[in-house]
Structure formats: C-alpha cells, structure tokens
Amino acid sequence: MTETISVTWIGSDGNRTTADVPLGHSLMEAAVYNSIPGVIGDCGGALACATCHVVVEETPVPLEEKSGTEADMLDFAEAPAEPSSRLSCQIRAARELDGIVLRVPTVSALA
Ligand code: FES
C-alpha cells in the first residue's frame, strides 16, 4: 500500500478539500487530480507557468527554500505573491508535511 500524507487546499472558491496524497507526488499534480479550483499546472511542473501558485497557510515544518527560478516565476503569477507563496509543482509530498494546508490565492476583479 502506498504511503500518503493528508493535504488540505482552500480553493479559489473558498471551499476546503482534504485529500490523501502519495509520498513523492507534487502538490500541483495532487491539486489537479483532486480538481482544486484555481490550480491549473499548465506547464506540467516545468517552472514555466506559475498557474500552480499557492500560499502555504499551515505547515508542520518549514518548507525548503524556494529556488531563484521559483521566486522569479512567482512574479508572473496571476495573483500577487504573498510572503509564503510557493509554486506547488515544486513541493513534493513528504512524511514531514503531513497536515499541510495550502490556499489558492484569488485574483482581484479590479486587478
Ligand atoms: S505547474 Fe507550471 S510552474 Fe508549476
């Protein structure tokens, strides 16, 4: 049996979804698989689209630092980046992240 962790998303529609994500899967892939509103993953995880932007609301342990490329790509995200913004294709399900909560930022209608 594949080991999983629990991941919760607060989608762009405000609804919470919790799913079991197999270890090693990217949290972008998991969001797309679970039809989380607002996570698209256009580039398939190649750090080329920023449509997997999430804000880390709660995490059991600090995430690894983002790479320079990830930080640069966050500048191109549709919703403005927040201090704990990440590209979820760069976060892999790991045991220590069990219980992580991610919010999908919304784009202001006036932006
Ligand atoms: S899926 Fe394109 S940057 Fe994450």
UniProtKB/TrEMBL annotation:
Keywords: 2Fe-2S, Iron, Iron-sulfur, Metal-binding
GO biological process, one term: P450-containing electron transport chain
Entries under CDD domains matching the protein: fer2 (cd00207)
Pfam families, alphabetized: Fer2
Cofactor(s) the record lists: [2Fe-2S] cluster
MF (Gene Ontology): 2 iron, 2 sulfur cluster binding; electron transfer activity; metal ion binding
Keyword Iron part of the UniProt annotation: yes
Domain 2Fe-2S ferredoxin-type: 5-108
Alphabetized PROSITE patterns for the sequence: 2FE2S_FER_2, ADX
UniProt superkingdom: Bacteria
InterPro entries for this protein: 2Fe-2S_ferredoxin-like_sf, 2Fe-2S_ferredoxin-type, Adrenodoxin-like, Adrenodoxin_Fe-S_BS, Beta-grasp_dom_sf
Family recorded in the similarity comment: Belongs to the adrenodoxin/putidaredoxin family.
Designated name of the protein: 2Fe-2S iron-sulfur cluster binding domain-containing protein
Organism in which the protein naturally occurs: Mesorhizobium zhangyense
